[in-house]
Task: inverse folding
């Protein structure tokens, strides 16, 4: 037994968005549509103070893989569609999910409808729309200049055409309509000895992943060295995504 955790160093994070793009690339998440976000890795932006004394924070956000996860507590299925692994990651089982969205509504870090400046943690693949609709359209974006989404997908032989293929016992590389989806700490990579793709892709090394219960891990050492914070501690969900330092902090 252990506890997979992530530490994000805000003093190193430049807000470049590489982690968000890496997540979309690795996990084949859909493009955003009105009222719905499919970004498993997103950002929370904050401005404090009065000009010229203003502090600005660009904070990466993702599923917190809470130790007392509200999403698991409300899942009506037996066995649960949202569940914990032996290493403390919160995963979803695509086959058991009935699309009730109770987990999304219960999660204090997720919003059912995502507006400008907000972020989502748990996303719902709409039942009334086909998955990856932009790659099913036969009309060219620019007539006589570009191919249609459907033509690109056909020539690539897969939808979406840039699909990263992997296998996992609980979820597919591209989820079907009518089910929820969220960050898995790239469980398909971690179980094969690799790090989450957002960690690998961060150009400033702001993200660290590992087992917080092992004193020898980089995560445990960072949590011991710095005073860490979590999002919405008042919710008492015990998040396992920790933030250390700040943009203004000295190394």
Result:
């Amino acid at each position: 037994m252990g506890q997979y955790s992530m530490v994000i160093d805000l003093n190193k994070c430049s807000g470049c968005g590489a982690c968000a793009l890496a997540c979309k690339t690795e996990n084949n998440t859909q493009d955003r549509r009105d009222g719905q976000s499919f970004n498993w890795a997103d950002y929370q932006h904050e401005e404090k103070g009065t000009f010229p004394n203003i502090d600005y924070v660009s904070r990466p956000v993702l599923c917190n893989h809470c130790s007392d996860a509200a999403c698991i507590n409300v899942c009506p299925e037996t066995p649960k569609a949202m569940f914990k692994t032996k290493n403390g990651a919160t995963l979803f089982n695509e086959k058991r999910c009935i699309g009730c969205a109770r987990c999304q509504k219960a999660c204090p870090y997720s919003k059912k409808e995502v507006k400008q400046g907000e972020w989502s943690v748990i996303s719902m693949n709409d039942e009334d729309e086909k998955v990856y609709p932009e790659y099913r359209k036969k009309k060219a974006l620019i007539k006589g200049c570009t191919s249609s989404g459907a033509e690109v997908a056909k020539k690539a032989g897969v939808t979406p055409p840039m699909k990263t293929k992997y296998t996992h016992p609980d979820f597919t590389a591209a989820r079907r309509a009518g089910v929820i989806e969220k960050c898995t700490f790239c469980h398909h990579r971690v179980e094969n000895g690799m790090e989450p793709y957002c960690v690998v892709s961060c150009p400033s090394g702001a993200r660290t992943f590992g087992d917080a219960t092992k004193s020898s891990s980089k995560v445990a050492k960072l949590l011991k060295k710095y005073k860490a914070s979590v999002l919405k501690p008042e919710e008492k969900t015990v998040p396992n995504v920790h933030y250390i330092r700040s943009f203004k902090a000295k190394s």
About this structure: DSSP finds seven helices and nine strands in the chain. Helices lie at 18-27, 70-74, 102-106, 149-156, 187-190, 197-201, 218-225.
